[in-house]
Amino acid sequence: MASFGAFFIFLINIFFLLTLSSAEDALIPYEFEVSYITASPLGVPQQVIAINGEFPGPTINVTTNNNVAVNVRNKLDENLLIHWSGVQQRRTSWQDGVLGTNCPIPPKWNWTYNFQVKDQIGSFFYFPSLNFQRAAGGFGGFIINNRPVISVPFDTPHGDIVVFIGDWYTRNHTDLRKDLDDGKDLGMPNGVLINGKGPYRYNDTLVPDGIDFEQIDVQPGKTYRLRVHNVGISTSLNFRIQNHNLLLAETEGSYTVQQNYTSLDIHVGQSYSFLITMDQNASSDYYIVASARFVNESRWQRVTGVGILHYTNSKGKAKGHLPPGPDDQFDKTFSMNQARSIRWNVSASGARPNPQGSFRYGSINVTEIYVLKNKPLLKIGGKRRATLSGISYTNPATPLRLADKYKVKNVYKLDFPTKPLTGPPRVETSVINGSFRGFMEIILQNNDTKMHTYHLNGYAFFVVGMDFGDWSENSRGTYNKWDGIARTTAQVYSGAWTAVLVSLDNVGIWNLRTENLDSWYLGQETYIRVVNPEPTNKTELPMPDNALFCGALQKMQKPQKITSDASINGNGLKLLFTLLNVLRLPV
């Protein structure tokens, strides 16, 4: 039986969450034990971060407006936060799981996240957001299904399969982190994993014997939904399945105009849903491939993820050459045109029973404009850093949201520039001051030599334009003002720009970052602060009772006694669901 004190606090937080949401919104509880395991995805034993002993971690599967409670037990030897990438945390920025909003969960402690997946559908994932830990795993899927009353713009697939792709190093994340701290590059990754496994031995020279590979079993004639996430460190990957079309149907919470692709570039941090019909003759198994983009392909040949699609009536093993990817190693035009072709299905319903296109973003007046420019890594004060508009972000000891709540001074500055600095770069805790219910235009200018993906917490933004060269006022003439895709990430090609529009209707302090893990770790991020001048529970819920304290507020933190079996199970779960049944009364 769990520690009663910890369990009682858990129940109090569940009660609080439910009293502020509809009585019809179910609560879905999860238990996460985060620990190290030894695994050998590329044939080399190494330390991997697992959830409940699994790598990748379990999939959270919920429905629009469900309340989600995830009790996280930190069995690592360092601080931990779990971030729910793409989950907008409407009214609950306290649950976002990044250093701007949360104090870390110390080793041997547990902490319960409580939030509602309000007005969202789609394919997302979670991951540990601190200390370069995502390079060691700790990630898993997060599916938000439509409510039964909302139609989905395609027939129900026979199966729903989550696929994680990503570059991978055989060095531990602590060693990778030290290399970055010492000013070194990480170098070429050792491989690409598919669902935490190494490549199928399609080539005896490139792939050693004895590596476990991913196999997806399917039935002929059936259609499956594959939710594919690039959870890697910094490598853009081209995803394809031999002899099969990928019918794109959804990306990061928005249904798309359905289009077939033979392959699609998926950049770091991005998620896509494909409908794939098993319409081949099954003369053999088929290759599933995730290969690196915009690299010297002869040098990167071994850095290729290969899995197997296996029909139940397959007549033999896959053999021969892998299906080729795009033939444009140094020309990114094909990839950009492919990205531009991804459009919003304006006639489909999303989380609500009205068409996605009922929000006419193209006719809203922009109230704030920020041009954010990156550059290659540089030294500031003798340390190698990554910058955004000339500022390299440093996390304060006290989270921004806590500093606001308790009026702690000198934690951060609301002075992030609207245009890149012209003077020398600097290391600061500089934050964007967003206007509640404003409409912000953000231009992401990539002057680095590599591809970047940018992510904004708390929102889905509209990707309205991208092109090579420098953005200018005249670039607005190329914007898509009708069916630009609404999503949480946007790729920005080297030597190019991407423009997004976002409606600042979600109160909180929201992280804006590169998803390239090395540059993020070295400071390429900021936050957008959105405050309702007339605070109310309708726009932001109160700080949770179980909030952790650190930094200038460390003295407010009470000690936590955690036993090895401090989980919600057995009789505890029965008590929990008894309480939930009582709480089904109208509120």
UniProtKB/TrEMBL annotation:
Its cofactor is Cu cation. It is found in: Cell membrane. It is a lipid-anchor; GPI-anchor. The keyword Ribosomal protein does not apply. The keyword Isomerase does not apply. Residues 34-147, 160-313, 398-533 form the Plastocyanin-like domain. Belongs to the multicopper oxidase family. GO terms for cellular component: plasma membrane; side of membrane. GO terms for molecular function: copper ion binding; oxidoreductase activity. This is Monocopper oxidase-like protein SKU5. Residues 1-23 form the signal peptide. The lineage of its organism: Eukaryota, Viridiplantae, Streptophyta, Embryophyta, Tracheophyta. It comes from the Eukaryota. Keywords: Cell membrane, Copper, Glycoprotein, GPI-anchor, Lipoprotein, Membrane, Metal-binding, Signal. Pfam families: Cu-oxidase (PF00394), Cu-oxidase_2 (PF07731), Cu-oxidase_3 (PF07732).
